[in-house]
Design goal:
CATH topology of the largest domain: Beta Polymerase, domain 2
Largest sheet: 6 strands, mixed
Strand order of the largest sheet: 3-4-5-2-1-6
Number of domains: 2
Number of strands: 6
Number of helices: 7
Radius of gyration: 19 Å
Distance between the termini: 55 Å
Order of helices and strands: HHHHEHEHEEEEH
Low-confidence stretches: 1-10
Strand content: 5-15%
Shape: globular
């Protein structure tokens, strides 16, 4: 079945108005449905009736739109959710201290939405060591699919109160800068930095 036509298909695919439509549609899908950036952009293109090979905006543009959407429609909920997830991340990082844990992703950058998971990088001597540690600690998990050849394993914690993905990398990678899919340096933080973020946020929040 042919895809329905969209008036914008007749426009330049790099036209600012059309690019903005995709950006804001993707941002809404990320904020409301918890989709990752790649899937959200592809779904936004389909929702707008555009061809699958239509040029996609960069993640940086979409991230700005996500922050704007959350500020307008989810501000109070967003502040509480970020605080909740960061405190959960701190507890988990202390437990995983032997493996040099770093927080990364949306919980660190403050764009985590309703369905977000905590993303933690681990640097054990080997992935089996981390797996045995989780089993000994009684932390329920299953294996995820690594998205990079550098990733040795992904452990997805099966606990609704601790929605976390543990990404295992070789120790040598701890000193290397990591890149996002669109080439930006991927931010990451040790537990002390996350604790400082929580303290700073609490300090500026109004008393209830």
């Amino acid at each position: 079945m042919s895809r329905r036509s969209h008036p914008s298909q007749m426009q330049n695919p790099h036209a600012p108005s059309l690019r903005s439509e995709i950006v804001h549609a993707a941002a809404r899908l990320i904020a409301e449905d918890g989709l990752d950036y790649g899937l959200a952009k592809r779904k936004a293109v389909r929702q707008l009736g555009l061809p699958d090979n239509f040029p996609l905006p960069g993640n940086a543009e979409v991230e700005v739109a996500v922050r704007d959407y959350q500020t307008i429609y989810q501000e109070d909920e967003q502040v509480e959710r970020i605080a909740e997830l960061r405190h959960a991340a701190i507890d988990l990082m202390h437990r995983l201290a032997p493996f040099s844990p770093y927080l990364t992703g949306s919980v660190l950058d403050g764009t985590a939405g309703r369905h977000a998971r905590i993303d933690i990088l681990l640097f054990p001597d080997n992935a089996k060591e981390a797996e045995i540690f989780l089993l000994d600690m009684g932390i329920p998990f299953h294996h995820g699919n690594p998205r990079s050849e550098r990733v040795e394993a992904v452990f997805i914690i099966d606990d609704p109160d601790l929605p976390a993905n543990l990404v295992v990398l070789p120790p040598r990678d701890e000193r290397m800068a990591m890149k996002t899919h669109d080439g930006r340096t991927r931010a990451r933080a040790r537990v002390e930095t996350v604790e400082a973020l929580c303290a700073a946020t609490k300090a500026v929040m109004p008393s209830i």
